[in-house]
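Chain A, query sequence.
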Amino acid sequence: MNKIQIFFIHGGMTFKKKKDYLHFLRTKEISIEEPKRWTDAYLKKMLGNVFEIIKPRMPLQDNAVYDEWKLYFERFFPYLRNNIILIGSSLGGIFLAKYLSENRFPKKILSLYLICAPFDDTLPGEELSGGFKLKSDLSLIERNAKRINLLFAEHDDVVPVAHAKNYAKKLKNANIVIYKHIRSHFIISEFPEIVKMIKADVKTLKKK
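Chain A, predicted structure.
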């Protein structure tokens, strides 16, 4: 029996001007140590035996362009199955929001998770450009995915919690969770809350 698929799209950055991107490259904090994030070993450890986890590296992560991400994303469609779980973090979140608000997804979506996804270009320290702007009508998202979860951190210094409220105005049926104990942009080594939610998704599927 095929495993249920989890398709995860990571975050990224966009820049309106090349000089700003070059400045970012010159000044970005670097480290030779591999960061420990929940999306890596933790996710595989907690769910890898039960789910097929798909984590593509999207094109030009630090200088992303929506049309390029869209093209690459669609190349995976022949390998996807019904009852897939889609997760988008940060820029990956608004990418999924934009794509699913403008296109019919070819497979049945069991659940959709948008984690600390920006809603627009009102970010305190970053720009949102590269074609990632959402259209005003997001209703197609709810037709593509009946179960939508918006996960935000109250003290996120990258994507303010106000962005969750903006999504809530557009997605009336979405489940919105604001975490008070997560104080970063979900740069955490473990995320048991989402593991529990994903396992609950599968239980609803088995009841049908």
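The mean pLDDT is 95. The helical segments are 18-27, 38-47, 66-74, 91-102, 139-144, 162-170, 192-207.
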